Amino acid sequence: MAETSSFDLLPDEQRLARFMERIETGEKIEADDWMPEDYRMTLIKLISMHGISEIMGALPEKEWVPKAPSLKRKLAIMAKVQDEMGHGQLLLRVAEDLMEPLLKSREHIIQDLLSGKLKFHNVFHMEAKTWGDAGLIGWLVDGAAIITQTNMLNASYGPYARALKRICAEEVFHAQHGEAIIMALAEGTGKQKAMIQDSIDRWWDALLMFFGPGDASTTGTSKQDITMKYKIRTKTNEELRQDFFSKYIPRVLSLGLKLPDETMHFDKTEGLWKYRQPDWSQFKQIIKNNGPKSRERLRLREISYTSNKWVLEALSVRV
Amino acid sequence: MKYTKEEALIHKEYHSALCELLFQLADDDFILAYRGSEWLGLAPHIEEDVAFSSISQDMMGHAVIFYGMLEDLGIGKANDLAHDRPAEERKNAILLERVNGPGTYLHEPHYDWAFAVVRSYFYTGIKKIKIASLKNSSYIPLSQAAVKIEMELYYHLLHWKTWFTQLLGAGGEAKKRIEDAMAAVFPDLDGVFSFGAARTMFIRLALITSEEEIRQEWIQMMRPIFESLGINMPNSFGLESGNGRDGVHTEDLEAALKTLTEVYRIDQTASW
Ligand SMILES: [Fe+2]
Ligand SMILES: [Fe+2]
Question: What does pTM read for this prediction?
Fold first, then answer.
């Protein structure tokens, strides 16, 4: 305690120096620890966006839960979507703790989502048109999420790192679940095979965009630098996208599927995948809630929020 | 006398009564779990979304167990029994097929949480009493499955009871909405108790206890809760929309079947 109180008396620069020292030596920062304002704000933004993306991300797959084609798939996809809601819950709690000193709560997170202030991941604005899409989301979107989240498993912020550890363990099952759906289609009838090729064709750009722009020049801003400085993440967007290519391109091709990018190849001298850039101006539009399904999915959350208001009111009454 | 699967397969009368009961149990859980899955992402708060979904999965799991027993009894593949039977062959109670509220799960789902709570709570209580009786069923595989199912139902019932008492106890709008939901549920509640035309056979073959006993036990279980919350238990319930056990169903079931078989029907011979 004595140490804490003397720390409290230090001028901000010295506190910051001590904080950076902790970050550099790999010590975890906890919710009640002192932290610079931009660290807190970056975390709130990152984690509430991650949390709300899990929740919005449940919606495209949820469209297929009641329609899953067998009892086994019905059970599996119900469990998968439930996990995503669980991830959202876990992450929003981490974000809520960080927001407490700012006198903000989950209510604000939901309000910010509905007003468009809080963004959610580009992939969850896309249409999930077919059962093939339900499989592809599990296989490749969760696959991509594993890559970005593993990159933050050692995040300097302890509560986030611990939540991610649990989430990543479940994501591995999700990717297997998605892969199982895709494998069944790939080994199935011509119609079923065509279904996955169609999904890949429609989702490819969104998957590339999932990792974010390579640098600030494409979209004007990038949080990469600050998150790396504070050791929240270690790899850049482009490095993560390259990891995704290395892991999944061979798998996609081995199923007899084609990539909708004829320029895609691995450049051995540079050790990099060369690919056609997705349309980043479209990405900007999508995350501004102007994607194909943005409005509709937000509307679902809005309906849930407004039509259940009476429930939340009743819960606050002590019985 | 107790029956194994092999014995049930030989005795024609027993086989047909047993399958009738299994269809009722399977179809009840299947359709209500489906209704639960429509709620995903729309529950009053995120924690409830997770909990409700877990309950719906358990329920779907129970349906899988019952359809699986029917498969073992040579009736057909569990998957096809769940997906490929027209409405008039379904044995679920009508109360359980009713929509969650206005709209569809994809478009403007203005679902009614009070209805979800009342329907789930009443159904779970009645199911728990049935399952407790099934622990002594003459069909050995069913009595064994009942032991496992009963443990899960303990948590489901507690969950819905907590909602029911909180919402009623809160008074005001919540109480009013729960009362409205009860007014919508009671007129069809007899359908959940009913065993349809097979009721005497079920008793004679010691498959399960009587409708009347299940009803009395449920009333006994609920009466103190109703009293403590200051609400009345009606003297009789109803079968207003008809008896689902006889294959009578509503448009709601037709629409649900269309949705839940949409992918399955693309190619029924394909493996998904
Ligand atoms: Fe997740
Ligand atoms: Fe996931």
Answer: 0.95
